[in-house]
Amino acid sequence: MATQAFDSLDETLRRKLEKLGLFSDFDLVLHLPLRYEDETRLSPISEAAPGNTVQIEGTVIGQEVLIRPRRQLICRINDDSGTLCLRFLSFYANQITRWPPGTRLRVLGEVRAGFYGMEMVHPKCRVVRDNMALATSLTPVYPVTAGLPQRTLVRLITQAFERLRRKQLLQEILPAAILSACQLPTFEESLSTLHCPPAEISLASLQQRSHPAWSRIKFDELLAQQISLRCHYHQRHSQRAPALSQRSDLRQALLEKLPFNLTAAQHRVAAEISKDLAQPYPMQRLLQGDVGSGKTIVAALAALQSIGHGYQAAIMAPTEILAEQHFRKLSSWLAPLGIEMGWLSGSQKKSLRSQTLEKVTNGTVMLVVGTHALFQETVQFKRLGLVIIDEQHRFGVGQRLALRMKGGNEGSIPHQLMMSATPIPRTLSMSYFADLDVSVIDQLPPGRAPIITRLIDNNRREEIVARIREACLEGRQAYWVCPLIEESEALQLKTAVATHETLSQVFPELKIALIHGRLSSDEKSTIMAEFSQGEIQLLVATTVIEVGVDVPNASLMVIEHAERMGLSQLHQLRGRIGRGAATGVCVLMYQQPLSAVARKRLQIIFEHTDGFEIARQDLLLRGPGEFLGTRQSGVPLLRFANLEEDIGLLEIARNAAEDMLRDHPHAAQRHMQRWLGKREDYLRV
Ligand code: ADP
Ligand code: MG
Description:
Low-confidence stretches: 629-635, 680-685
Bound molecules: adenosine-5'-diphosphate, magnesium ion
Shape: globular
Number of helices: 24
């Protein structure tokens, strides 16, 4: 049979393949079956047990069309051992005449106990011709798309496999030492087993993807990912960045002015960062710390180290409220040291903005704080030494990259510190984040009273209202978080406005304000300042306050319709309170009936306050998407390996990647090329 090269396939066919993510011969051979059907043997009807999928051969003994309960075709067949009923809920009119009594049918399907005895619903049926042999291997079932039937896909995959084999592109790449350490079949052997499994193979081990052939594919995939991440790690070390050693005089001056002492964890991570900054290649470090663990001061120390050498620093935050708060806090710490700071946001006045821009360009401003407005083209730094990105998972790869490229002086790249309160479970930090160095603040500042979480049914609002009134009149402050309405921002705004009105009537004696994303930055910052200074007692808010907001005196929070929110969002919101001396109380109001997942989420957030544990549970509940955030677009996702189940393979792959890069760099390159091809380009975070 003539086989066409992939590139010369018919245009419509190619478009269909692209829908399945198949762009090359290699993609085709890695398009692996979803499941298999066993057409290698026949079961007697009497031995077919309910729940099993089996193949049976029998003779048609009669057919009838029933009208009730709905129109359906019933076809009975028998063999020497018994009778089986085939039931079709949709069928062609000619199906009855095509299968007259006496026709021999070979059917494959799941057996169940039905009203008419043993039955199969919509089995796969073939009329038996003379000497129709049984299959010699299991029949693969591939993921397909409309207009691309299984048999076409089977043919294309077989052809692609042959072509690659002839071009010797399926050869073993892994060095013998690695192969013998992991004891897996060769790549080609594994592919051929998976596409065409011999009849005697364990079907269960294929379906559960635990067969060694599957392990080999997953291992290769993980290995490619690890090699690519390690390559980036090494590449970074060959780039240049300003070596900014510690200036202990400045550090000391800042620490002496603080109203608190750093925790041991803060000291440790600050030292790790400080050491990186002193290297002549760019730091790329992720600073993780639960909400309230005190990442901002660590960022300030890093900025100071850069500024101390005459290199500017920039801090980017995902929301204006947060950026503004950083600006105020950092000014209070750094202005006394004679450091001039600048503020940039998308909505600030033109004149102010251009003034700041000029000072950034001529180097008067040494520390710039802002939103994503920071990486726009008009922003030109004199000498940028350090980029700090708060809540990094909120930004896209492109945005972070753009800011880093701003360094661009004399071929050197600024150092980069990313901060996140969303903890990354170990499996993810070993895989998707393996090109970064990670520091963890695993300790909260002392004196924090634990937060009390209460789950309260929506119909007990009255009680909550009474408690809030009492607390606010005693001088405490509270957040009232409006429900998340994902479908419509406009509707969410309306709800927030209505909630504010209602609460203003309910609490005539309190000063209440409303904050949401649509306010101008001036309005937002006025409200936040008033709330910080205690002039506002109750702040009605949308989820804009979710990240970073830090008002220690606010110790109460009511979250409406908590059942609609995700775990990390609830954890972040709750992290806004319990920052001061008073015990934080977080009331999660929910509306019955609760879905099973919502119930589980509320239970988790009720039982745990540790962000790592919550994240781990979230990973189990939802898979890795959330944690990767926008990083997803930058890192090739795993198609075959599953991080939770394949942690053992991941560990082997990680070591193998280092070994290969050191001892067999050429093979490492070829392996990465085989798996990532063009996708590798994305990986320039
Ligand atoms: P996050 O890690 O969530 O960004 P912040 O940096 O906003 O946390 O810090 C939370 C609060 O704790 C702030 O008010 C900060 O000033 C305070 N803080 C930070 N470090 C300490 C410390 N070592 N002791 C006491 N308070 C601290
Ligand atoms: Mg923060």
